[in-house]
Amino acid sequence: MGKIEELKKQNPNFNINIIDIINDVYGKSKYTEMVINLIKNKYSKREGDGNYYSDIHRELIREYKVNPDKLIGKTVFELVNMIRVFSENIGYNESKTIEKFIELNEKNLITQKDLTTYKTIEELELQISLSDLKIVDKELEKQVLKLMETDEWLVLKPLSYQASVKYGSGTKWCTASKNESDYYFRYSKRGILIYCINKKTGDKVAGFKNLDLSYEKETSFWTIIDLRTDSIDCDLPEEVMNIFKEEFKNTKKTNWELLSENERNRQLIQMESLIKKYDSTEYLAEGQPTAELRVTRRGDIVLDEEIDVSVRRA
């Protein structure tokens, strides 16, 4: 018996028959036949809509990485149901996590090799987190300020958006989002942002203290799934908690202020390549005390201008 046939036998609830489902709802075969004909007619009209077919085809390939060869000869009805398997049963974000996990596992970067042990998407995310630490390049290592590192713990301040994404990989933190870079800049300019990573389990905790007097006082801790929590509930060892306490009590500079002017400008220029999706000709360095800074799409830096701080989405 092949593996797939064995899986079908072990998981009978996944062997779904649409005709049986329709018949369970309407009870009599004559009504089941009628409903099937209604659905067939509905999708037969869409078969002739080239744009509709192309959109679904493109979504399966681009968003869910389905092999194009697997889509050859599929009807619109089949394609729609393929998308539903992903979007409704797996979920868009979860499918991205699975895709990343598979990519790393194929490169032999996943520590836990027994795939049958995984039961939650969070377990995959922890493994991704651990694996990403193995492939941090030397350039990114220069873009963090390490506060502590042992065989088990790594505590650092991310000093660039790229470093924030890398060291925050596998989390739900907005400051580590690949799609929302402005969050990192907002927090790095407002206060002290610290990432704590357990190098053995992959678990992560973020800490933030606001230093900007135009905002309310804030000292917060965030779990790997971006839930705000009490520092006591983070279950961090005393030596790690002391790092947070020391930094939050005595440090007066934000992450952004730790950078030289040249480093800040370089980061903002790099940001231009990441915000092309925005319908805006400028990216702003908000919160600077003496001058606003704008980076145009040509890469020019403009200083000392009054600029409305806003970014519009496309």
What does this structure look like?
This protein has 314 residues and is of the alpha+beta class. The chain has helices at residues 3-10, 18-26, 29-47, 50-62, 76-90, 92-106, 121-134, 138-141, 161-167, 181-190, 238-250, 261-272, and strands spanning 144-149, 153-158, 191-198, 204-210, 219-222, 228-229, 282-284, 293-296, 301-303. 44% of the residues lie in helices and 14% in strands. It has a six-stranded antiparallel sheet, with helices on both faces. Helix 4 packs parallel to helix 5 (76-90) and helix 5 packs across helix 6. The radius of gyration is 25 Å and the shape is elongated. The protein starts with a helix and ends in an 11-residue tail after the last strand.
Question: Based on CA inertia axes, which overall geometry fits?
Answer: elongated
* Residue fraction in strands: 5-15%
**What is the helix fraction of residues, given as a range?**
40-55%
Q: Class by helix and strand content?
A: alpha+beta
Identify the strand order in the major beta sheet: 1-2-3-4-5-6
Low-confidence parts, pLDDT < 50 over ≥5 residues? 277-314
Largest sheet features: 6 strands, antiparallel
Alpha-carbon Rg, integer: 25 Å
Annotation field: number of helices: 12
Mean pLDDT: 83
Number of beta strands:
9
The SSE order reads HHHHHHHHEEHHEEEEHHEEE
